[in-house]
Amino acid sequence: MPFPLPTLVAMTMKLKEVSLGLVELAFPDSRPIVKDQYRSAVCVDETTHANTIMWSHLFKACVSLLRQLYGRDLRRSYCPDGHWISQQVTMSLAMDRPSDATLRRRSRLRQHYRPFHFEPAFTREELEEGPPPSTKEVRTLTILKEIPFVVAFQERVIVFQSLVLKDKVNHHSTARTFLHGPAISIIVRRNYLYEDAFDKLSPENEPELQLAMRVQLVNTMGLDEAGVDGGGVFREFLSELLKTAFDPNRGFFRLTKDNLLYPNPHVHLLHQNFLNHYYFIGRMLGKALYENLLVELPLAEFFMSKVIGRHSDVDMHHLASLDPVMYRNLLYLKNYEGDVTELGLDFTVVHDELGETKVDELKPNGSNIPVTSANRIEYIHLVADYKLNKQIKMQCSAFKQGLANVVSLEW
């Protein structure tokens, strides 16, 4: 029997508080003052290996459940506005944001600062980058990594922009003036925006897309358009390029019934080197994020989860954002009280490829395996996995790699 929604809302609030409390216990001050029942979790000289494992497991379990409940709220909202935001964390971030050195080292911090392990060890090279981060900084980074949704979106944007700014300095794109610093310069024809950009901004031609970019547009008559690119032409170019790349008529993306974009499962029929294109489009979106450029791209929720989520695969509950009719049919099958074999299903899926009907097996010999009451749950999950993951696995992987080429997915 599922929990009533009011109970579920109260449960998420308590679980959020417990998770935040565990972060404080996981990374204590050097000489913490805690109650006796917590001392075994935070004092090295009194903590046994078994207790460390126990507290670490509790932390992981709470965070995992909290993420699942938050994901459920994203798909079908059941919590009031502002429910997930912690005012305490927001105030801490606003007053004491992580230093640039700490932000740059956040990927390395994970191997040094594990919950309830209190003896981090740094190499000489790492210590030369600066002093170890403070307890507040480590707690903040842990929250941003494990349960970022308790921090207000605008606060997370500020942290992201700080990371980008530091990275720009490292790439010399803000260390000098826009017109005189190292930059990428390209000439593109307005009528062939995508084709020219795909060629000239390939990884082979421009491996460092983090550099500043200057664009010269050529009109339909073959003449250079007037004006010097001080940043405005580039932003116009990138905005139009992304609109063109995500246009369903180009074939790389399709629209759900709610007019949301996701990778075309049958793109291989239209473009032979489609993986290179998804990698390129991912890079261009990464460049837009890197340059703080706002673009309107109505991406499907399940696709966004695959790109920025911890796992590339998503479960059947995301199917509602791709195909709500199929999702309802699978739920009907799950709750069907009659003889499932009467439905005449087997472990195959039928789809259309440019007017030609194709049949794919969900498991070996699936066409000869009927769906029964005993195996229908397996069938439901295999259908959802096929639609959400297997059909677009390569497309999403290439897109994600392209995005990560410009902006770190850790950010």
UniProtKB/TrEMBL annotation:
<dbReference type="InterPro" id="IPR000569">
    <property type="entry name" value="HECT_dom"/>
</dbReference>
<feature type="domain" description="HECT">
    <location>
        <begin position="205"/>
        <end position="411"/>
    </location>
</feature>
<dbReference type="InterPro" id="IPR044611">
    <property type="entry name" value="E3A/B/C-like"/>
</dbReference>
<dbReference type="GO" id="GO:0009966">
    <property type="term" value="P:regulation of signal transduction"/>
</dbReference>
<keyword id="KW-0808">Transferase</keyword>
<dbReference type="InterPro" id="IPR035983">
    <property type="entry name" value="Hect_E3_ubiquitin_ligase"/>
</dbReference>
<dbReference type="Pfam" id="PF00632">
    <property type="entry name" value="HECT"/>
</dbReference>
<keyword id="KW-0833">Ubl conjugation pathway</keyword>
<dbReference type="GO" id="GO:0061630">
    <property type="term" value="F:ubiquitin protein ligase activity"/>
</dbReference>
<dbReference type="GO" id="GO:0006511">
    <property type="term" value="P:ubiquitin-dependent protein catabolic process"/>
</dbReference>
<dbReference type="GO" id="GO:0000209">
    <property type="term" value="P:protein polyubiquitination"/>
</dbReference>
<protein>
    <recommendedName>
        <fullName>HECT-type E3 ubiquitin transferase</fullName>
        <ecNumber>2.3.2.26</ecNumber>
    </recommendedName>
</protein>
